[in-house]
Amino acid sequence: MNNQVQKLNKMKQEVSKKLPALTKVLRGTFIEWYQVCARKDCKCHKSKKYQHGPFYRVSYSKGNRSYHIYVPLKGRKKIEKWVNNYNKIWQGIEDISELNIKLIRAGISK
Ligand SMILES: [Zn+2]
Q1: 36 alpha carbon to ligand 1 midpoint, in Å?
Q2: Sheet arrangement for strand 65-71
Q3: d(CA 49, ligand 1 centre) in Å
Q4: CA neighbor of 62 nearest in space, from 28, 22, 23
Q5: CA of 41 to the centre of ligand 1 (A)
Q6: What is d(CA 25, CA 17) in angstroms, rounded to the nearest whole number?
Q7: d(C-alpha 77, C-alpha 63), whole Å
Q8: pLDDT tens string 57-70
């Protein structure tokens, strides 16, 4: 193996090592939101800074429809991480694909 190939293989290992566990992913968008309540005299109607929240939900699509699921406050950090992990794994796939293209160009087919 030449230096270029060794270097590219090492880079792939590095990318692969940093990937989150596949069991800790959620495909969707993590959303923080605030709410105005039904009580007309509540101060939340006066200014955005008095609105209730933050609350959290994840929106996701399945087929041609989109859905959302409310995130319990207690699980917020974990679930937000699952969403970030999903994106990290896709980025890792992109990075490894790019490195594999470079490997092919370097003359390696295995
Ligand atoms: Zn209110």
Answers
A1: 5
A2: 29-35, 52-62, 65-71
A3: 11
A4: 28
A5: 8
A6: 16
A7: 27
A8: 999 999 999 999 99
